[in-house]
Amino acid sequence: MTRAALPLALCLAFFLAACGSDPVIHDWQRPHDTYQVGAFTKAENAEELKAALEQNGFSARIETEIRKGVFYLNVLVDVYSPIPNLEEKLERISHAKPILRSKARVDSSAQTTGS
Q: For 55, which DSSP code?
């Protein structure tokens, strides 16, 4: 009887522990827009742009990519809420026109046009 009760008690303990916990929501799970603001073959250049973006309050990251046999370090900015003149700010910092890579419901009401 004791041997059968132990696995049952463990399962019950795990079940009760899991029921009370709130789900963890990571940044990448939240709706956001992703802009590519640079693509470099040298890590120093990518790190320099990432640091400049972070100094200006942007959440930047570096992603690797191989395109036609060439290794690139893409600098990406994730935007979680609308920012006025965002593309102009990114272009001023990166000295290149940002490319919107993915859009996921971060539109502001000012950007919505009616028919």
A: H
In contact, 98 and 35? CB cutoff 8 Å: yes
Phi and psi at 85, nearest 5°, equal: 55, 40
Placement of tokens 């910092």 in the chain: 93
pLDDT in tens, 25-69: 666 566 788 999 999 999 999 999 999 999 999 999 999 999 999
Do 34 and 78 contact (CB within 8 A), yes or no?
A: yes
- The dihedral built from the CA positions of residue 29, 34, 37 and 41, taken in this order, carries a sign that is positive
Which residue matches tokens 């019950």? 12
| Spatial separation of the C-alpha atoms in residues 106 and 24, rounded to whole Å | 21
Main-chain phi, psi angles of 68, to 5 degrees: 55, 40
Q: For the chain, first and last CA: distance in Å? A: 72
CATH number of 27-102: 3.30.70.1070
Closest CA to 97 of 111, 86, 87, 84: 87
| pTM of the shown model | 0.66
